[in-house]
Design a protein that fits this description.
Layout (H helix, E strand, L loop, with lengths): L4 E2 L5 E4 L6 E3 L12 H20 L12
This protein binds zinc ion.
Zinc ion binds next to loops.
């Protein structure tokens, strides 16, 4: 059962991917689908740090022979 929640302005509310709270899914919320700037920054920050970690430590190929 999916019930779409709406706020007082009749804008659709979706669960914030970061905190699970109500997030306004409408142009009035520039941080959608997040509930606000904090959650968006937190989520993007986690994604960015994950990318940086992966980029900084590329996976090693155990099957590749050593140079000598
Ligand atoms: Zn949130």
């Amino acid at each position: 059962m999916s019930t779409s929640k709406k706020n007082a302005q009749g804008e659709r509310l979706v669960p914030c991917p970061h905190c699970g709270g109500d997030a306004v899914f409408a142009p009035s919320n520039r941080y959608r689908p997040f509930c606000g700037e904090r959650c968006r920054e937190m989520d993007l920050g986690a994604w960015a740090s994950e990318s940086f970690r992966v980029a900084a430590a590329p996976p090693t190929d155990d099957n590749e022979p050593l140079p000598h």
